[in-house]
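If it is no trouble, might I ask you for a protein's amino acid sequence along with its backbone structure tokens?
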Amino acid sequence: MAKMSGNTQDAAVPILKQAFWTKGTELSGLVVRRFATIPEPGKTAMCIELKLPKYLNVDATLLSTSEKGLKGSQRLERIAIGEMTGLMMAINAAGTEHLTEGDVVDITCLGSTDTGKGNPRTDFKIEIERPDRPNADKF
């Protein structure tokens, strides 16, 4: 029989705001999991948690508002990114519906496109390495 334990703080991970993504921004990592979040009452959104190959220094203003109390530069080895429309379009164009635990990804922001709907869409290029077995020891 397997025995497991965990706590909330083990699963807590800062979410990058859309403002983090500017043209040329690159991020690579190992997909750890997908999870649901509630960005505002009545709305649910999916996020992707990445384990990074090296620490990322991010200004706290570029992290989700759920990370209250953080100030200045944060040194992170795990982050989450929201499944934004442009990112999901790139994932779909790569030939899959969503990222899966164990995927290794290289994400590049290509800039933004005016959609005519009031909010520009952030555009991405993504490279996905999906192994036959999870890459748990990759990073």
The helical segments are 8-11, 85-93.
